[in-house]
């Protein structure tokens, strides 16, 4: 017999609490000391979850670190509406490998601002004395940095418009414009700058955030750029939790299993990790009390995760789709693909890593393969393959470069790049279309088409993505062989040869 669903709202929290765990703390007494740009599934499964856990376990230490979410893109209006109707509450469901579901209503987000509604309100929230941390999950491409030079791209129309807008908040539309104008106002008011904390999958994400925000500030005034670089803290971090996009089936699951009407729940795996550099200017919550690794140097953890987990995800994505796997767990347990991905981890990624304090890399890799194969998370190869031009250059290309410089093998990394090139042709091995989702879609698709004709290295010649790899004979030999095999024999035969 079906259970009548209860709408998830603050007024209904007691009733909802009879079905699933809910916040036991007084949300009305929580103030938003963290302003977060990019409220999506990952943020709600990760940073917001940790703060919710801290509020539950040590309310007095965390009560000034509630979250104010901010959306700047037109598509964020949907998140605004969903969260507004639910008083910023949502259900987080952990999907264990044995099929067990572990739900909790998360209450750490106490405000949400949609920047197009009121840009001035966003700037003033950032400039408020109570704001201590500005955190970011704006995707790997959201920092507007050139993949080869690492420099901030000043000619982007939105960036140029925000730089010209200056203090006119009503004309701002980017995270750079909002944050820098708020820093200007704080300085004018005698307030210390907040800390800017990146939570995106980028090596040295704090350093990259510093480059981006200081460069944008310099567009307004070179002296302002110097001030941002000298006075604002940008801690590095490594974040990890596999969080697929919420589907209608997930909404139905929460209603069916728990009797909760939640417009936008989040589902994820049970594993979570966060390594965070202890470099904050205006205080921070004691996140180490709830499992965050607060460390002096994040780089070993970053490289471990980016080169083992994230790069392996790319290996699963394109080969998996070409093998007709829609779901990641099927790709990760495919008898040809699974050993290839593990061989990439062992033979190519691991040799580029320094020892990671407190981590056994062999156990970590075993755990990764188990996580990839979790059949209940239902992550998709399409999600892993999206925005590849922002991912491959940051996650896989550095592995190939390090191994080439050391005289080590690169044929597995080259095969992963070749599988992306084959995927980007936009048609699978049965002639069915593949939807390529990428902010550089036109350029990527055009290069993939050219490789079918007179130039088999056309895809690899994009220096913005691959630098000079197209000129490296060892890499191009392995790349061309894998691409030729994919065209002639298909993905499974190619993997069998690679093994």
From TrEMBL:
<dbReference type="InterPro" id="IPR013131">
    <property type="entry name" value="Mannitol_DH_N"/>
</dbReference>
<protein>
    <recommendedName>
        <fullName>Mannitol-1-phosphate 5-dehydrogenase</fullName>
        <ecNumber>1.1.1.17</ecNumber>
    </recommendedName>
</protein>
<dbReference type="InterPro" id="IPR000669">
    <property type="entry name" value="Mannitol_DH"/>
</dbReference>
<dbReference type="InterPro" id="IPR023027">
    <property type="entry name" value="Mannitol_DH_CS"/>
</dbReference>
<feature type="domain" description="Mannitol dehydrogenase C-terminal">
    <location>
        <begin position="297"/>
        <end position="485"/>
    </location>
</feature>
<dbReference type="Pfam" id="PF08125">
    <property type="entry name" value="Mannitol_dh_C"/>
</dbReference>
<keyword id="KW-0520">NAD</keyword>
<comment type="similarity">
    <text>Belongs to the mannitol dehydrogenase family.</text>
</comment>
<feature type="domain" description="Mannitol dehydrogenase N-terminal">
    <location>
        <begin position="33"/>
        <end position="288"/>
    </location>
</feature>
<dbReference type="InterPro" id="IPR013328">
    <property type="entry name" value="6PGD_dom2"/>
</dbReference>
<dbReference type="GO" id="GO:0016491">
    <property type="term" value="F:oxidoreductase activity"/>
</dbReference>
<keyword id="KW-0560">Oxidoreductase</keyword>
<dbReference type="InterPro" id="IPR013118">
    <property type="entry name" value="Mannitol_DH_C"/>
</dbReference>
<dbReference type="InterPro" id="IPR036291">
    <property type="entry name" value="NAD(P)-bd_dom_sf"/>
</dbReference>
<dbReference type="InterPro" id="IPR008927">
    <property type="entry name" value="6-PGluconate_DH-like_C_sf"/>
</dbReference>
<dbReference type="Pfam" id="PF01232">
    <property type="entry name" value="Mannitol_dh"/>
</dbReference>
<dbReference type="InterPro" id="IPR050988">
    <property type="entry name" value="Mannitol_DH/Oxidoreductase"/>
</dbReference>
């Amino acid at each position: 017999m079906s259970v009548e669903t209860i709408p998830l709202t603050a007024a209904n929290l007691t009733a909802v609490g009879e079905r699933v765990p809910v916040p036991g703390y007084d949300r009305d007494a929580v103030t938003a000391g963290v302003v977060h740009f990019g409220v999506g599934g990952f943020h709600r499964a990760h940073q917001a979850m940790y703060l919710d856990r801290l509020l539950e376990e040590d309310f007095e230490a965390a009560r000034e670190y509630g979250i104010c979410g901010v959306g700047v893109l037109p598509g964020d209006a949907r998140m605004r509406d969903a969260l507004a109707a639910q008083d910023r509450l949502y259900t987080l469901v952990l999907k264990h490998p044995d099929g067990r579901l572990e739900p909790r209503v998360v209450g750490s987000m106490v405000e949400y601002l949609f920047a197009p509604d009121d840009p001035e309100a966003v700037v003033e929230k950032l400039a408020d004395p109570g704001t201590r941390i500005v955190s970011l999950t704006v995707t790997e491409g959201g920092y507007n940095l050139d993949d080869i030079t690492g420099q901030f791209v000043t000619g982007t129309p939105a960036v140029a418009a925000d730089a010209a807008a200056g203090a006119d908040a009503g004309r701002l539309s980017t995270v750079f414009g909002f944050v820098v104008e708020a820093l200007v106002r704080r300085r004018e008011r005698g307030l210390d700058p907040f800390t800017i904390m990146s939570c995106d999958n980028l090596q040295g994400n704090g350093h990259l955030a510093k480059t981006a925000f200081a460069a944008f500030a310099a567009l307004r005034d070179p002296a302002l750029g110097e001030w941002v670089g000298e006075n604002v803290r940008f801690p590095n971090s490594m974040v990890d939790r596999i969080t697929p996009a919420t589907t209608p089936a997930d909404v139905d699951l929460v209603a069916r299993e728990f009797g909760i009407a939640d417009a936008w729940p989040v589902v994820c795996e049970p594993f979570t990790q966060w390594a965070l550099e202890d470099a904050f200017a205006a205080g921070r919550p004691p996140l180490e009390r709830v499992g965050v690794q607060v460390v002096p140097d994040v780089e070993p953890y970053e490289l471990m995760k980016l080169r083992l987990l994230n790069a392996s995800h790319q290996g699963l994505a394109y080969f998996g789709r070409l093998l007709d796997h829609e779901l990641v767990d099927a790709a990760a347990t495919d008898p040809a693909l699974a050993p290839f991905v593990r061989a990439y981890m062992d033979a190519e990624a691991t040799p580029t890593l320094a020892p990671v304090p407190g981590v056994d890399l062999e156990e970590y890799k075993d755990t990764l393969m188990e996580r990839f194969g979790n059949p209940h998370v239902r992550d998709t190869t399409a999600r892993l393959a999206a925005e590849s031009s922002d991912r491959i250059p940051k996650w896989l290309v550095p592995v190939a470069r390090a191994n080439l410089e050391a005289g080590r093998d690169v044929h597995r990394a080259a095969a992963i790049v070749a599988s992306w090139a084959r995927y980007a042709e936009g048609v699978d091995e049965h002639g069915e279309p593949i939807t390529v989702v990428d902010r550089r879609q036109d350029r990527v698709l055009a290069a993939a088409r050219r490789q079918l004709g007179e130039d088999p290295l056309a895809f690899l010649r994009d220096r913005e993505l691959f630098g000079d790899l197209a000129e490296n004979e060892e890499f191009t030999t392995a790349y061309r062989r894998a691409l030729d095999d994919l065209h002639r024999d298909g993905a499974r035969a190619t993997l069998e040869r690679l093994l």
